Amino acid sequence: MTIAASNFILNIAEEGSSIGIVTFSSTAQIVQSLVRLDSEADRTAVDAKLPTSASGGTCIGCGLLKGIEVLEQAGNASGGILKVISDGKENVVPFIAEVKPTILAKGVIADTILYTTAADDQLTSLAASTGGLSYYSTSDLNNAFIQPAMKRDPTYVQLYSSTFTLNPLSTAVDTITIDSSVGNNTRFSFSWTGGYSGISLTLTLPNGTNQTASGASGDTTIIMALPGKAEAGKYRFILENTGSRTSKEITGTVVSRATGGKNDLIHVSSQISASDVDFSDPASLYLIIYADVTRGYAPLVGATVTAIVEASGLGTFTQELKDTGSGADLSAGDGTYSAYFTKFSGNAKYTVMVKVEGGNTTKVKVNTAAKGQGAQAVDVENSGTQFQLTTVDDFSRSSSGGFFTVANQTAGSTVDLFPPLPVRDLRVTAMSYEMRTFTLEWTATGDDLDQGNASFYDLRMSRNYTALRSDFDSATPVLASQLAEGNLTSPLPAGQKEKIIILLKDLKDETTYFFALKVGDESGKNSSASNIVSSSFVEIKPESSHDNAGLIAGVVLAVVLVVIVVVVVLVYFLVIKKKHVKLQESEVSEKSGVDNPAYSKDKVKITNEKKNVNQKGATPATTAYGLNKVEMPTDDGSGSKPAKNGFSSKALNNPVPTAKKNQLPPLKPASTGKSGNLKSKPKK
User: Fold this and answer.
1) Positive or negative CA dihedral for 61, 65, 66, 67?
2) What CATH class has 269-408?
3) Which end is more exposed in the chain, N or C (fewer Cβ atoms within 10 Å of the end residue's Cβ)?
């Protein structure tokens, strides 16, 4: 406890802030009045006042009241923060519940830190009531001090956090990446317990130079501060235990501050979906760990995100968090990485720490064009929105997700608690009329919710959507003998893409078939049914050469008719002129419309409207052509009918209509009428 508090005073507390110290046991006393931290000497003087031992009862209420007294040395206590650290339950009055109204009335925030399983749970409630934060850890109290500072000051960043055992005459090696968005006031800190140290640190900078530091006898911390702005790149540290007496439990932390604005800073925040898991309430078992990874306000995609969950006295577990839109993650590519936690191992407090690494696959996703930056444009399916993906520096980040408490778990309750999650993204991605096949794709969910490998898929089909939705088990199963590719009995690991091709030779043409599936595990637990998709076999009949010939002839005939009409009009005007009839001028007014109808998303009809004028002339051919509907001439030439689409399960959004080789667009026969929109007025 003292080591973590010392690290906070020496390395974390903001320049210009004020700190005081209160100790409490059966009573409370002020050991350091408020001191403004303007220099390293100020920090050292306050650090020297930290207590080295504790004894007697536990009067947390006494400590809270005395803490308010210290805050009021600067005037109004409102907005002040009390960091309350305790290892036991209160047993001396006044209790927390008795002094809580005073704390609330004073407007004081209480951050609470529990560092043993015996610590009073009322501290967690106190933090929530006052707008503070609560942390629990038996091994890494540094994070309990660092995380509140990060949440309140977004320019403060934790690059690294780890707790590990360093055996006698052994070394620990690791690498931290400092990106260009941070680097100010960067500090490497390694703390341990025990009197004899014998710990040495060697830090290799990106330029290849080494810096060293070592702890003298009795030291419990090594701090290495990098002056100015730290160079961006990879920093490799070697921590060595040169002693031969005892192992050391090491807590390592690297912190830094932003070098630019908030929009350039890569930030990670993490949280859990609940603080209590009670095995007597099955609904509470579905706990999710989240991590938001952003640069400014834009999401980062392609990062490696890992949750490290430490169960007090029961072990440490790791869990990969994903941003794939499957499992616990609801939306792919939004910078929120998530996963269910299923590795409950007994009644205890579970502490969550999230680590994030960014490399060459990590990109920032923004929905404004990044001109001149070589950004890659990405269409978001069905949204019409374009995003830009741009690369970012390699980076490292750590973030605390808090802790949760597990209760009422019995020895036999750890056996296959969870069914697989249902598939949410089943899709028909291809259809072959000639081969009589459908291609289905989806994302594997897992054995226990979104973890592991399921045992099988149960794929069903029906001609009735309502029947498939309401009574899945009565629908027709797709058999292994009907699969041209893939299988339903060896699911891939959770998060990977599944693909099968179904061969269905006996299905009728132009009949819609619906598909859905369930996921099953080895103990007989099945998911609910997936989303339902549909498709049908539709033949695309190529046009014959006879039709093409007729089409070409129609075009030639239309051109000839237009030429004849123009000649007739010219003769008509010449005759009028010779008879000395009053002449008329003609004005042609352009009609507004699209420049290129083939690129319009809506159906566009290009035509000229007839006006009520006396002259008779030619009317250009009327053509309907668009993305969503194409009108083709009927066999008898009397009208038009929609062209058949060979794949009816999904609308095709091709931005440019395509035609077969040597095939002209369909035209309707030309009719006589007015050429253009004419407005007539007498010539003066």
Assistant:
1) positive
2) mainly beta
3) C
Q: Taking the C-alpha atoms of 125, 131, 137 and 143 in order, what is their torsion angle to the nearest 10 degrees?
A: 180
> Which uninterrupted H or E stretch holds 679?
strand 678-682
* 151: its two tokens: 């949440």
HSE-CB of 320 using CA atoms within 13 angstroms: 14
Residue 414: how many CA atoms within 13 Å on its side-chain side?
11
Cis peptide before 94 (omega within 30 of 0): yes
CB 655 within 8 A of CB 634: no
CA distance 457 to 490: 8
- Give residue 558's Cα distance to chain centre: 58
**What is each CA distance from 82 to 33, 53, 64, 625, in whole angstroms?**
14, 20, 8, 71
DSSP-assigned letters across all residues of 50-77: S-S---S---HHHHHHHHHHHHGGGS--
- Pairing of the two strands 81-86 and 109-114: parallel
pLDDT along the chain (684 residues), means of 10: 82 90 94 94 92 84 96 92 88 94 96 80 90 82 82 88 89 94 92 76 96 79 90 95 82 90 88 94 95 94 96 91 91 94 93 94 77 45 66 92 92 78 94 91 93 95 95 96 95 94 85 94 93 84 55 43 43 42 33 33 35 38 32 38 38 36 39 39 42
> Looking at the domain that runs over 1-136, which CATH code has it been given?
3.40.50.410
Q: Which residues of 212-245 are buried (b: 16+ CB within 10 A; e: fewer)?
A: eeebeeeebbbbbebeebbebeebebebbbebee
Enumerate the domain spans of the chain.
1-136, 152-260, 269-408, 427-535, 548-682
Nearest to residue 528, comparing CAs of 513, 516, 538, 539?
516
- Sheet with 427-432, edge to edge strand ranges: 427-432, 437-443, 497-503, 483-485
Scanning the structure block, which residue is given the tokens 């960067």? 186
- Please choose, from the candidates 62, 15, 68, the residue with its C-alpha nearest in 3D space to the C-alpha of residue 42: 15
CA distance 489 to 480: 9
Question: What is the C-alpha separation between 85 and 81, in angstroms, rounded?
Answer: 13
Contact status, residue 527 vs residue 419, Cβ threshold 8 Å: yes
State both tokens at 244. Answer: 């031969």
pLDDT at residue 674, rounded to an integer: 39
Laid out side by side, the sheet with 210-214 consists of 170-178, 233-241, 199-204, 210-214
* Continuous segment of H or E residues that includes residue 448: none
Output the DSSP codes for 166-182.
Answer: E-TTEEEEEEEEE-TTE
List Cβ neighbours of 84 (8 Å cut-off, separation of 6 or more).
Answer: 60, 63, 64, 67, 110, 111, 112, 113, 123, 126
With H, G, I as helix, E, B as strand and everything else as coil, classify residue 361. coil
Beta-strand (E) ranges in 626-667? 631-633, 640-642
Cross-strand partners of 179 = none
Candidates 362, 537, 364, 342; CA nearest to 448 is: 342
Cα angle 217-220-223, degrees, rounded to a multiple of 5 = 110
Cα–Cα distance for residue pair 321/341, rounded to 1 Å: 10
Under DSSP, the state recorded for 10 is I
Tell me whether residue 387 is exposed, middle or buried, using C-beta atoms within 10 angstroms of its C-beta: 0 to 12, 13 to 18, 19 or more: buried
Topology at the third CATH level for domain 427-535 = Immunoglobulin-like (2.60.40)
Q: Which fold has domain 152-260?
A: Jelly Rolls (2.60.120)
Q: Do the domains 152-260 and 269-408 sit in the same CATH topology, yes or no? A: no
